[in-house]
Amino acid sequence: MIRLARTNRSQIAEWWWTVDKWTLFALFCLMLIGGVLALAASPAVAMRIHLPPFHFVYRQLFFFVPTIAVMIGVSLLNVRQVRRLAAAGFLIAFGLMLLTLVIGPEVKGAHRWLQIGPLAIQPSEFVKPSFIVLASWMFAEAQRTPGFPGTIIALALYTMVVGILAMQPDFGQLMLVTMVFGAIFFMAGLSWRWIVSLGTVAIIGALAAYTLMPHVASRVDRFLNPDSGDTYQIDRALDAFHTGGFFGRGPGEGEVKRILPDAHTDFIFAVAAEEYGVVAGLIIISIFGFVVMRTLSRAMEEQDLFVQFGACGLVALFGLQALINMSVNVDLIPAKGMTLPFISYGGSSMIALGYTMGMLLALTRRRAGSHVTPPNGKRAYA
């Protein structure tokens, strides 16, 4: 039996004493909530499509195992290994994204998935965190090494990613990647020229998507004018919040899960609010908020620019995805099929979240000298 004393120099013991245990605990809490809500939301969905009642529950619990293994395994890495993993992960996942355009099945007019045996994989879920880490590396190197074209490389990577997302098409993921990339670029000290240029490109891109993509225009139109189209799912989600009240209708007593096609994925937050009330919703929001604020606090203490940019970018990816999902549920933004991290049902997306948060935990681990600036004012990279 391994004793995790501070004098123990094993890799596991070192990890235990350096990892952010509060963030790790919060992530396990989200998984626990996801398991409970899978029991609440998924049986009705499974029976509606003629599957065994606990089909999605068993699959959710099954995917928790590799997700935790990936998260813990990646969090054991050092900073240099995180960068190498991100580079390898990006090359593999980006190649798979290209394959989706060729051999990926069409689902609701989009080619985003690859069927590998019994497992459906969405490569973009793995590209996002890998890209964020690589972009952070490039921005940090651009500041550390005068003349290094880090900003240009980061912009090239961004163009590659959003180009494929636009062709799939996956406008929601495109917007999410753009927001996170913009946040890292802002942290890296972009000039007003870049702000104006990128802002103009973003506006042109949004207008082009609205003009050229009918499903994007339809969602925006229905959000601005509910009478212009079908708003059934949003209406039922809002009904769930109204009927749930402060303390909810009680476990198993919700109605929205019986009539919403995506009750176990996109609208699981509404199921939680109906059965467990506003209190449950506030608890979920608080846990996500805690992970974000805790990570930002630890990143601010770092002297390594790559660690700062990477940790902030990864937690922004995590937090913005949660914010988008919950905002759609309460009709604050146009509808977008985006899952609630660690709570919504998912297979490859769940494992990708483990990969994302594993890199986050690896970057925010306490390391000897990580909070001390050397005499020359520049911190050497691990």
From TrEMBL:
Keyword Transit peptide: no
EC number: 2.4.99.28
Catalyzed reaction equations: [GlcNAc-(1->4)-Mur2Ac(oyl-L-Ala-gamma-D-Glu-L-Lys-D-Ala-D-Ala)](n)-di-trans,octa-cis-undecaprenyl diphosphate + beta-D-GlcNAc-(1->4)-Mur2Ac(oyl-L-Ala-gamma-D-Glu-L-Lys-D-Ala-D-Ala)-di-trans,octa-cis-undecaprenyl diphosphate = [GlcNAc-(1->4)-Mur2Ac(oyl-L-Ala-gamma-D-Glu-L-Lys-D-Ala-D-Ala)](n+1)-di-trans,octa-cis-undecaprenyl diphosphate + di-trans,octa-cis-undecaprenyl diphosphate + H(+)
Keywords for the protein's UniProt record, in alphabetical order: Cell cycle, Cell division, Cell membrane, Cell shape, Cell wall biogenesis/degradation, Glycosyltransferase, Membrane, Peptidoglycan synthesis, Transferase, Transmembrane, Transmembrane helix
Principal EC category: transferase
Annotated compartments: Cell membrane
Domain of life: Bacteria
Any one biological process term the GO annotation gives: regulation of cell shape
PANTHER family, A to Z: CELL CYCLE PROTEIN (PTHR30474), PEPTIDOGLYCAN GLYCOSYLTRANSFERASE FTSW-RELATED (PTHR30474:SF2)
Protein name per Swiss-Prot or TrEMBL: Probable peptidoglycan glycosyltransferase FtsW
Organism per entry: Parvibaculum sedimenti
